[in-house]
Amino acid sequence: MEDILIVTIGVPTIIFMIIVAPIWLILHYKSKKQVSQGLSEDEYMSLQELSNKAEKMADRIQTLEAILDAESPDWRNKA
Length: 79
Known about the structure:
- This protein has helices at residues 2-37, 41-71.
- It is built from two helices and no strands.
């Protein structure tokens, strides 16, 4: 009975420790390293460009709302 228990639990555990665990640890620490390095230069430039576009869009929206407020003061209540 003990031999079956050792084979049933021991063999999968040993296989896990020899094959799966090292691969898991390598991939885990590799992803941690990538996260800690931060943004690449291309990613930073893309983020900066998106930020600039968002600011321009916000300015345009404010301008459009100011025009609508002047021409039709209760346009906000119609929605």
